[in-house]
Each structure stands twice: as C-alpha cells, then as structure tokens.
Write a structure and sequence with these properties.
seven-stranded mixed beta sheet, 3 helices, alpha+beta, Nuclear Transport Factor 2, Chain: A
Length: about 130
C-alpha cells in the first residue's frame, strides 16, 4: 500500500468538500481523466474540462461530503468506497454510496472514475442508456 496515494486522494476529497477549486485541481495531472456520471459531461479530460465540471457541481452542491468506508491502494492505483452526503443548493440532501477508482503517476492523479450502484438516467422511452 502506498500511503502517499492515500494522502493525495484524501487531499482531493477534502479540497472538494471545502469547495477549494484550486486545491482540488492541484491534485490532478494536466492531462488527467475524471469520469463521473453525475456531471453534464461525464468524461472530463484535462484540467480545463475538470475545472468546468467542478464549477458546475459547486454551483448546485452547497456542502459536499464524503465518508470513506474502505480504501485500497497499490503503487500506482487504487479504489475507495465512500458514503456520499451532499447538501444541495436548495437544501435537499443527496445520500448515496459510490466507488472511485484511481490511477496515480508522478505524484498526481491521472484518472479518477466514479461508479454508482444505480443505473444511469433513462433515455426517452424508458430505456437506460
């Protein structure tokens, strides 16, 4: 297990919970991939795209929150299971579990991908896409 990887990922989560955009972006490589189905554009490649995604989410989530349930890490990759608890801008709460898989290179996150235990939104006609 690489403790440095865990420190980096926890730094990202804390920056996200604090809505500190610059600190969150500093955790990523310039050409990193962030994939999260909660964003309007789930696949965000590069810091400019990640910045735009975070700015969108920070606009609709008043208080982000994560509690780590499990954390696994190797030399250059790992995964964590979290209980997500966000307070949205309209004061409603969003609670759901999710898993993040990550890859790290040169001390920065190169890929960070979210997996959720529910299907994507249904397309027109009720068929999940």
């Amino acid at each position: 297990m690489s403790p440095d990887n865990r420190v980096l990922v926890e730094r990202l989560l804390k920056a996200f919970e604090s809505k500190d955009l610059e600190a969150a972006l500093a955790c990523f490589a310039d050409d990193a991939l962030l994939f999260d189905p909660h964003y309007p554009t789930p696949e965000m490649r590069g810091k400019a795209a990640i910045r735009a995604g975070f700015e969108f989410i920070f606009g609709i989530v008043r208080q982000p929150g994560f509690t780590i349930r499990h954390f696994w890490t190797g030399d250059h990759n790992g995964a964590l299971e979290v209980d997500t608890h966000h307070v949205l801008a309209d004061d409603t709460e969003a609670r759901f579990p999710q898993v993040f898989v990550f890859e790290i290179g040169d001390g920065l996150i190169r890929r960070f991908q979210a997996y959720v235990p529910y299907p994507p939104p249904a397309a027109e006609g009720g068929v999940a896409v």
